[in-house]
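Incident log entry.

Two folding requests arrived from the same account within the same minute. Monitoring flagged them as a possible duplicate submission, but the sequences differ. Recording both here for audit purposes.

Request one:
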Amino acid sequence: MHSYRIGNPNEPAAAGSERALWFDYLGLQSSAHGAQLPIAIRFTDKTHPLTRGLDDWTTINEELYNNIQIFPTARPLARGMQTAKKKDGTPREDDYVVAWANDYHGTRVFSTTIGHNNVTVEDARYLDLVTRGVLWACGKLDKKGNIKRGYGPKK
C-alpha cells in the first residue's frame, strides 16, 4: 500500500498524475496505519460477486490503514473499525475501507489492507476474502458470485 510514493503522502494525489500512478492502479491512496489492535470488518457491498456469502468478523490485532482518498474507479467492499487512543488517552474510532475492487483501465484489481499477522492470514474468513478476490480479478466468478467450473473445490 505504501510503496511507490512521490511527494507528501498525506496530500491527495491527482488521478492520472505521475504521483498517482500507484494509487490509480490500486484505487485507493493511503499514507499510514494505526496500532496493532482488533479491527471489526463490515462488508458494505454484499451485492458484489466477490463479497457474496462473506460474513462480518473481528480480527485479532491488525493495522488499520487510513484512506487519504478513494478513487472514482474503486468500489469499496468492506470497512474496518478500530478503537484506538488519542495522545491524551481518550478513545478514537477509526473507520476506513479495508477491501475494495478497482477498474484500472479495464483490468480488475482486488486489494485489501488486512493481513499483517499469521493468525489473520490463517483465518478461514480472510482466506475466503482473498481467494474470492483473486478469482474475481481473474474473471473466475460469475455475476452471482459463483466460482466458475474448474476453479472451485473438486467434488
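Request two (distinct sequence, not a duplicate):
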Amino acid sequence: MVYRILTWFLRAVARVFFRQVEVVGLEHVPAAGPVLFVGNHPNSLIDPILIITTCGRKVHFAAKDTLFKGRLMRGLLRGLGAVPLARKVEHDGKPADAATAAVRDPSEMARLNDAAFDSMFTVLAGGGTIGIFPEGLSHDASQLARFKTGAARLALGGSTRTSAPLAVVPCGLTFIHPKRFRSRVLVQYGPPLLVEGSTEPDQVKRVTGEIEQALRRLTINAPDWDTVRALDTVRRLYQPHGIAIEDRVELARRFNTHYTAVADDPRVVAVMARVRDYQQRLDELGLADRELARDLTKREIAARMLRHVVLLVWWLPLTVPAAPLHVPPLIFARLAGPRLTPRKDVVATTKMLVGMLLVLLSYALAVAYAWWRLGPWWGAFAMLLVPISGWATLRVLDRFRLVRRAFGVLGRRLRFRREVRALRAERAGLAQDVIRVVGQLLPRDLEPLFPASHPQRLDDEAATRDPASP
C-alpha cells in the first residue's frame, strides 16, 4: 500500500515537472516473473522515478547508501523498497562519523554489499523486479560511461535462483532538455535479454557487454556535446516536420552512432562545415532552426499566438485562488536549483525536490489556515481547490511561454526579414544536401526511417511552400 501511494504521488510529480512523458516499448516488459531493469543514468533521482512510474511493475532499486542518511530520503527510499549499496568512491576522504568510518573498511563494505545482493536475489527468486544503473553514478556526459559489472553479476546470480527465465529489460531515458522544468522525456524499453549461466568472470564480462549494447541501441552517444549539437541540427534538417519524440530520438541515435564511421568522408566534412556555419548564423541572430523549419507567414504566426492567448485567458481565472502558492516556489526552484548543487546532472532533481517540498508546504499551510479561520468545510474545499488551481497555473505558464515564443518569432521576422529569407534558402539547400548524402552513405542493412521519397516528407515539403512568405 505504501509503495502504491508513493508511486501514485511520484507519477503526479513527474507529470507536473515534465510537459510530456512519452513511453515506448511497454510490450517488452514481462507482466509476471523476475525482471532486472537496466537503464542509463543521466538525471540522478529522476531516472528511477521515471522507470518506477512507467514500467507497470513494482521495482526495487539499488541505491547508493549515502542517499539513506537523511530522514526524509530514507523514508522515501524504504517505502519504495530501495536496497542500499555501499560504494568505495562514495566513502573516500575523511569520514563524517563513526558509521561512515566503519563502511569505509573494505571487509565491512563487502559484507554490506553481499547482504544487499542477497536481498535483491530474494526479490528476483520471488518473481519480483530489480532496477539498477550499470554506469554506477549519474552523469551529464555526452555518452554512456564505462559499465560496472554489478548488473551482470546480479542477472547471472539471480538466474540461478529463479524457476522462470530471468529477463533483463534495457531502459533508455532521453531528456529533450535535461535540466529544464516542463520539458519532455522519452522512456523507451527494449527487447529483454534472457540470462542464464554462472558468475564466472568470462560470463560476467559477456553479459555486461550485451547489456551495454542493448542500452546503446536506446540512447544517444557522441564523443562530445559540440558533435551532439551539430548532429542534432543535421537531424532537424533531415526529418519531416511534426514527427513523434520516439522517431526524433531514433534519428538522433542513428546519426550519432554512424557518424564516426563516415566522419572523414569528404561529403560529410563539407556538409558538417555548412551545418556549423548555418548554426553559427542562427546563433548570431538569436534564431532557432525550428523557426525556419516551417515557412509560416506572419498571419499564421499571429493566428497561433491568438489561439494561445485565448487559452491563456481561459485558464487564467482558475489560477487566481492559489497563484501566490505556486509561482514563488516555482521561481525559487528555477533560480536556486543550479546554485544548490555543483553537479549538472543533479540540477533537475534539485528543482523537482525543492519545488515539490515548497508547494506541498504551501498547500498544507493554506488548508490549515482555511480550516482554522473558516471551519472544516472550507478546509476541505481548499484541499480540493488548491490542486486544481495549481494545474491551471501550469497551463497558464505553458501558454505564456508559447505566446512569448510566438512574439519573439514574429519580432525577429520583422527585424531580420532579409536575413531570414537568406537563411531559409540556405536551409532548404542544406536539407537537400543532407538527405542526398545520407542516402548515399546509409548502410545497406539499415532501413531509413524517412527516405527522400517518404510520403510524409513530400507532404511536409508541399505544406511549407507559401508564396506569401516574407
